[in-house]
Amino acid sequence: MTFYLSIFILTELMMIAMVLHVAHYSGFTKTQKTWYLLTFIAIMLCSGAEFAVHCGYYVPSMKLFMTILTVLQFSIAPMLGILFVGALGLGKQKRIAVAFLAVNLVVETIAAPFGWVFYYTDEGYFRGNLFIIYEIFYFLSLIYLVVGMIVVGRKFKNRDARTIIMVIVVLVAGIVPMTLYQIHVTYIAVAISSIICYVYYNDLVQQDIQAELIANQEKMSGMQSHIITGLSSLIESRDMETGEHVSRTASYVKKIAKYARSEGVYSDQIDDHFISMLSMLAPMHDIGKIVVSDQILKKPARLTPEEFEMMKKHAESGGDVVKKVLDGLADEEYVLFASDIASYHHERWDGTGYPHGIAGEDIPLAARIMAIADVFDALISKRCYKEAIPREEAYKIIEEESGTHFDPKLVEVFLRHKEEF
To answer: What is the pLDDT of residues 103-113, one digit of tens each?
Structure first.
């Protein structure tokens, strides 16, 4: 008897814990919560009724009460599968549950006076000759639960057939001892199975939410990329470029960063995230040109000192323009990274660059990498004010300006892989 009391208490405590969890959980709708609460409360009621029947304290005067209690238990127990399928979110379960309860209640009520399914004597509870009626209803409910789990699982991208198998195994492990040996551990098995089902469904929901978040992040990232590239190409087209400068320099900075990391150069700063951000945001390096007039941008000759001072404003204004463009579209780290590239890619290693005249490693690493890519592409490209120069000559210029214009460590990386550019 101590064994059955322990089983009963454990079952009730598990279901109370689940009821409290569902009541305070914000991940389900009100309808889903109702179904879950009905399921767990029904298990508690059925477990309590079974314990009352088999606890050993039955007396003949309780015959009518125990008969009514058992009728209710035998009517509710086969509904557990339907209740849980409703909790899993399968539609139109309310009518099925009501109909199933009504059929069970009618059958058990009619059978009770004749002792077909069960009966009580002075010695206590006994199974009737037609106890199989209850077993059939119970079995149909379990089949309905398993089928319901499969149907609901098909709605989700992430499914785990092993969980369904586990539920079946646990239920069988609880039902077989009761059916063959009248060892009453069914409801502890049902309670455990209900918790597994609950976790199974919650995992499905969370995995799909996570997958949806990732998809939305990728979609947002793609939108950001298209906006950045499109806007950058628009700026370049004002400068009589086709936008190919944007794509070329994005490719260059990615290669420089990858080779630097592989060779241990600034590897404490360069990781996959840094490389991804750099290649994505490099096209915004000249976005500050939006503040420069077409007369200067499209001038087919070298700029005068006064005009060059106006041109230099594109770096000074680049950071502010980036912040205005990306405000609300990206997080703070993203905006700051893009702002560094736009603001500082014309700074020089020796401190003679613009707009702030900062030097050495005070210049953000992303901007130092961008400087090499930007100048190299400008040298080998035809512009409205100059012809393209041969690549070997461009390599030589980059090498000569190592330590003055460019970060010498990055120049070494660039030149070691110059055939890749």
So the answer is: 999 999 999 99
182: left (phi over 0), alpha (psi -120 to 50) or beta: left
Of the candidates 221, 237, 218, 253, which has an alpha carbon nearest to the alpha carbon of residue 326? 221
Q: Which amino acid is at 184?
A: H
Q: Nearest CA to 1 among 55, 51, 48? A: 55
Residue 239 three-state SS: coil
CA distance 39 to 62: 28
In this predicted model, what pLDDT tens digit does every residue of 312-363 receive, in sequence order? 888 888 888 888 777 766 678 888 898 999 999 999 999 999 999 999 999 9
Q: Is 121 helix (H, G, I), strand (E, B) or coil?
A: strand
Check for a shared fold between 2-211 and 239-420.
no
Coil, strand or helix: which one is 267? Answer: coil
Nearest to 87 by CA among 144, 140, 126: 144
Task: List, in order, residues 6 or more apart from 279 with CB less than 8 Å away.
Answer: 250, 251, 253, 254, 257
Helical (H) or strand (E) element with 124 = strand 124-127
User: For residue 322, what are its two tokens?
Assistant: 């980036």
Q: Which long-range contacts (CB under 8 A, 24 or more apart) does 179-183 make?
A: 179/135
Q: Where are the domains of the chain?
A: 2-211, 239-420
3-state secondary structure of 29: coil
User: What does DSSP assign to residue 406?
Assistant: B
Alpha carbons 179 and 119: distance in angstroms, whole number: 17
SS3 389: coil
Instruction: Retrieve residue 218's tokens.
Output: 């990728």
CA gap 1, 390 in Å, rounded: 95
386 forms bridges with which residues in the sheet? 383
* pTM assigned to the model: 0.52
Q: Rounded distance, CA 263 to CA 230, Å?
A: 33
**Distances in Å between the alpha carbon of 253 and those of 282, 410, 413?**
8, 11, 12
Count of Cβ atoms closer than 10 Å to residue 47 Cβ: 26
CATH hierarchy code of domain 2-211: 1.20.1070.10
Query: Quick one: which of 197, 198, 205, 195 has its CA closest to 155?
Result: 205
Task: Indicate if the alpha-carbon torsion angle 310, 339, 268, 224 is positive or negative.
Answer: negative
For residues 295-316, b (16+ Cβ closer than 10 Å) or e, as one string? Answer: ebbebeeeeeeebeebbbbbbb
Which architecture characterizes domain 239-420 according to CATH? Answer: Orthogonal Bundle (1.10)
Hey, which bits of 232-361 come out as E strands?
Answer: none
